[in-house]
């Protein structure tokens, strides 16, 4: 099973378009570092840093599916400091089975952590696992991009 770490970052729930002022985003823009772990069945760890602009926050929390998987979370909630989600991922190329994902965790404007349970089948054999993503905002501004 290829790592599906980026799918853990979750989808933000859009507030109804009522006559309310726009809500503060659940996390702040800036420079973020995330540690993604597969806890079982095989342990892996990957640390990534990325710049989040205000326009990137929803996409970051929505878990923009990685290059291997397309993910959807029809049941999701990000409110009052708590993250809950449930959905599935499928391989982008070459077909393959569905991976069911459910997770929960917490967030603050400068951090979040979520632990998820994964379930799929390989050759008809049920396989389950656990994964986590822990992220912290490490700066107000992002490093300058090197000139090309």
Describe the model:
By secondary structure, the chain is mainly β. The protein has one domain. Helix content is 3%, strand content 53%. It has one helix at residues 57-61; strands at residues 30-40, 44-52, 69-79, 82-91, 99-108, 111-122, 125-139. The radius of gyration is 16 Å and the shape is globular. The protein starts with 29 loop residues before the first strand and ends in a 9-residue tail after the last strand.
Brief write-up:
With 148 residues, the protein is mainly β. It has one helix at residues 57-61, and strands at 30-40, 44-52, 69-79, 82-91, 99-108, 111-122, 125-139.
Number of β-strand runs: 7
Strand order of the largest sheet: 2-1-7-6-5-4-3
Poorly predicted runs of 5 or more residues: 1-21
Secondary-structure content class: mainly beta
Give the amount of beta strand, in percent.
Answer: over 45%
Average pLDDT for all residues: 79
Q: How many H/I helices?
A: 1
Order of helices and strands: EEHEEEEE
- What radius of gyration results from the CA coordinates? 16 Å
Helix content: under 10%
Note the gap between the termini.
36 Å
Silhouette: globular
Domain module tally: 1
Largest sheet: 7 strands, antiparallel
């Amino acid at each position: 099973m290829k790592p599906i770490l980026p799918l853990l970052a979750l989808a933000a729930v859009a507030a109804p378009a009522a006559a309310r002022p726009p809500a503060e985003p659940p996390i702040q823009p800036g420079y973020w570092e995330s540690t993604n772990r597969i806890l079982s069945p095989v342990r892996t760890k990957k640390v990534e840093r990325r710049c989040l602009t205000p326009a990137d926050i929803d996409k970051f929390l929505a878990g923009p599916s990685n290059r291997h998987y397309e993910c959807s979370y029809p049941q999701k909630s990000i409110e009052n400091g708590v993250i809950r989600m449930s959905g599935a991922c499928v391989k982008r190329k070459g077909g393959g089975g569905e991976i069911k994902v459910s997770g929960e965790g917490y967030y603050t404007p400068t951090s979040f952590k979520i632990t998820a349970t994964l379930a799929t089948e390989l050759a008809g054999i049920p396989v389950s696992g656990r994964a986590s993503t822990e992220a912290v905002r490490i700066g107000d501004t992002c490093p300058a991009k090197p000139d090309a």
